[in-house]
UniProtKB/TrEMBL annotation:
This is NAD(P)-binding protein. One of its GO terms (cellular component) is cytoplasm. Belongs to the short-chain dehydrogenases/reductases (SDR) family. It holds the Pfam family adh_short. The lineage of its organism: Eukaryota, Fungi, Dikarya, Ascomycota, Pezizomycotina. Keywords: NADP, Oxidoreductase. One of its GO terms (molecular function) is oxidoreductase activity.
Length: 291
């Protein structure tokens, strides 16, 4: 559901006169108010969407064309943080997992990797074959914004699939970087640190990583502002990824990057979650399917 970073980004776009299509499974109360507030011009429209279903991703573009006459900015922002139901340390078929042992997929990968890749693919198809309006070009540019994470630069035993997904997104963004100068399609990424959103606050396992006396939150508003910078600033071309912490934003370098540091990037209790993993593996029987 639209929340946190995505909510702040949608709100910021609307405040700047952009129409916004919200495509998600449902609306939290704050997002519902946004839809109710923006019913004329600019407009906010909700389209119920399961981002793991490709036909529903295609439907997003059909609705955007019908409601707004075209698409200029696409942000596949849905994401989950290694929930127990789709987690490396709760394999398919075990008690907490909802991934079927014969299902050939991880839900977390479907949401965090496959969905943004497929959405970007559909966006580019729309940009070069617009049903309405003018084809994309360097004088009629279009934008795709991917939400990555500082996990795309770091490692975390406790959240191995999430880290793999965010590394994948960083590589994906960089790989499409040259489309900007050639075709006017700018694909960028934003890499938030520890941001106070429901992705954290609604996740008890994730909150265990934090020490409230030592760790500092970044805000979703800071991330949304960085996302708008990626849309607008000419120096932040295709393939650029902006890292956002507490009162700090910087460009992540492809090579020899120093990595995230400072407030809004650290969690003090990471070692405790590692101990849980070690304990689970030492007990025996790990990974065996439930009867």
């Amino acid at each position: 559901m639209l929340k946190g970073i995505n909510y702040c980004f949608a709100k910021l776009l609307l405040s700047r006169g952009c129409n916004v299509l919200i495509a998600d499974l449902g609306l939290r109360p704050e997002a519902q108010k946004l839809v109710e507030e923006y019913q004329t011009q600019p407009r906010a429209v909700f389209q119920k969407t399961d981002v793991t279903k490709w036909n529903q991703l295609e439907r997003m573009f059909e609705v955007a064309n019908k409601e707004f006459g075209g698409v200029d900015i696409v942000c596949p922002g849905a994401g989950i943080f290694d929930p127990d139901f789709s987690n490396f340390w709760h394999p398919p078929g075990t008690a907490k997992s909802r991934d079927a042992p014969d299902g050939d997929r991880y839900t977390s990968i479907d949401i965090n990797v496959t969905h943004p890749i497929r959405t970007t693919q559909l966006a580019i198809r729309e940009f070069v074959n617009p049903k309405n309006g003018v084809r994309v070009s360097t004088t009629n540019p279009k934008r795709v914004l991917i939400i990555s994470s500082i996990a795309g630069q770091t490692s975390n035993l406790h959240a191995a699939i999430y880290v793999a997904a965010k590394h994948a997104m960083s590589g994906f963004v960089r790989s499409l970087g040259s489309l900007d100068k050639e075709l006017g399609i700018r694909v960028n990424g934003v890499a938030p640190g520890v941001v106070k959103t429901p992705l954290w606050t609604d996740n008890a396992d994730k909150m265990e990583l934090l020490d409230s006396k030592k760790d500092v939150w970044a805000t979703p508003e800071e991330v949304a502002e960085a996302m708008v910078r990626l849309l607008e600033e000419p120096d932040l071309g295709g393939g650029v990824i902006l890292e956002v912490g507490h009162n700090q934003t910087r460009e992540v370098q492809q090579f020899n990057d120093p990595g995230p540091s400072g407030e809004g990037h650290t969690v003090s209790r990471m070692d405790e979650t590692y101990k849980e993993v070690y304990k689970r593996l030492k007990q025996g029987g790990w990974g065996k399917a439930r009867l």
